[in-house]
Amino acid sequence: MRSLSRLLLFAVAAQITFVAPCLAKDAEPPTIFLDKSPRIVAYQLGRLNDERLLLVPRSTDDKKYIPVYEAIVGRPAMAAGIRDEAFQALAKLKDSSVAAEMLAAITKSKMDTPDAKRLVDLLTGLMLKRPAAELTALKPVLSEVAGDDDPALRPIALAGLITAGDTAAARSIAESDADATIALLAAIRKLPNKKLKVAQRDYAVNQLESADSLDVKLAAIDALSRIPADQADTYQRLITQVEDAATRTAASRGLMRLPPGVFQTDSSLAAAQALVAFAEATPAAARTTDAFIDAMQLVDRLLTKIPPQQSRALRSRLREVTVRVVKIGTVEEEMRYDVPYFAVEAGRPVQILLENHDLMPHNLVITQPGALKGVAMAGLAAGPQGTGGLPYVPDSPNVIAASEMVAPDSATRITLTAPSAPGEYPYVCTFPQHWYRMYGVMVVVEDLDAWNQNPVEPANPLGSTRSFVQAWTLEDFAGDFDSDLRGRTPEIGEKVFNEASCVGCHKIKGVGGAVGPELTDTYTKWKSDHMGILREILVPSHKIDSKYAMQIILTVDGQTLSGIVVDENDDTVTLLTNPEAKEPVIILQDDIEVIKRSATSMMPKALMDQYTKDEVLDLMAYLKSVDEAQEK
Known about the structure:
Residues 488-627 form the Cytochrome c domain. By secondary structure, the chain is of the alpha+beta class. Among the domains are: 230-322, no CATH class; 325-453, Immunoglobulin-like (Sandwich), CATH 2.60.40; 474-544 and 604-629, Cytochrome Bc1 Complex, Chain D, domain 2, CATH 1.10.760.10; 550-597, SH3 type barrels, CATH 2.30.30. Helices cover 42% and strands 13% of the residues. It has a 5-stranded mixed sheet with strand order 3-9-8-5-6, with helices on one face. A hairpin with a 2-residue loop joins strand 10 and strand 11. The N and C termini lie far apart (53 Å).
């Protein structure tokens, strides 16, 4: 536990303010002297934590407030809605554009911490989606930034030029030297839509074929693997790079981004043979490196594409030199693993590498068949102390193996011997309330190579029959509210509300969880703004009510707690860690080492991606009907 505390501290030290005691809810706005020199004003604002910064008066009627808005857009933990408001204000006060202000914020960032880099990636994506006119007006500035030698900023500026419609200018700059060429290849992954990426495929192919620099070649491999077109051809180009030690790692990672359907038997066999030989020649001490593990992930994929007799022989050789590793990541803001299921052979050793790319801590607990919910509930009761130093992991025979709680931007490994009995063994994050969505299945089979020839997707361990429908955006619902939801079916909407676990966190007419806002009078509060309400559902982190902002607390004895602060004073903080908790957790202020406010809502995004548009609209109709019934 103490190690987790240290990991979190190191990961966020540059972005958090140490606050003990916590900020009182009735705190007065801090006194900031905005008439001082810019350096002094920046110093004053820099001393404030995010909550106190938002208490500083600000207005769009006086340029003196520009530093306040600039400070807001530079904070990684600001909610998206507040950041949007600040960019709009800066554009008005400086008579510029939102895109220009986003670019200014990007170029000012030091990008020296994971949070800062994540913010720059976010701002880059937002900037490239601004109206074309804004980006066109920025071309002189983008060209200037693209011509600089900053390896982090050049790809962003070049992506901006391409998005603004000036690919010729971007390629002209890329011709200046190898570093500029690498920057343009790196820019491809930043482009905001498929059409723009596909338009750069010929360039990436040409660079791969003609590169006289290894670094350019590696950048071309990476870029080509991220372009969603002609992926069968991409496969043929990359599979030949696996046998070359200089390009092996880049090619392995690139091939893993391609759909399995483009892999071919003969070339898969040749590549698998080369990689197994590479594994055998690798010293034991080097078999835990990222490059080695990524190459072995590719071997796993390749072995599914070749006949069982040959795959068994290669797998047998691998077992002599290394333990099979299954890499599982977390998806930022979506509260899910990026691997929904994987297969292992009964009685064989396997290692699971869990990489946490999310902003919240997560773990991975493997359970007996049918025991997912029971283990999750028992983990909730075990609390942050857990069992054997593993937070939220219960002492239960239904737990087969479990990881520690993994801090953001960190990783851990679980080594186990697969159960001897074939079956479907769920894995789940037991951090409070994550089990609703964050789970998968370890399929234990008698003969892995035979199973790979005819893999069968396991049943959903919670019994859900839902599958992905669409990654819904606000634009997808344009015009759908013209009828004011007349003809919709609130009864279906109520079913969606319960099935999507909304009731676990939100009350309607006094029934439901308490970690989110009461929804009975949603339409009254939002003045029947359909699109505003839909934004709250589809993009829950857009604007987070301070009362429901998630706080991560690190205690002096190494515990990590997360939840909603429901009360605080000079002596204690009262934290509601999950909707099922019978009582909130009370923490002494003296026991608090760090509090970090998250920019991510406790409500995951993509909740509606398994529902049809009609069902989403029926959910809206349900919320509307509840509000109307209350008024009668």
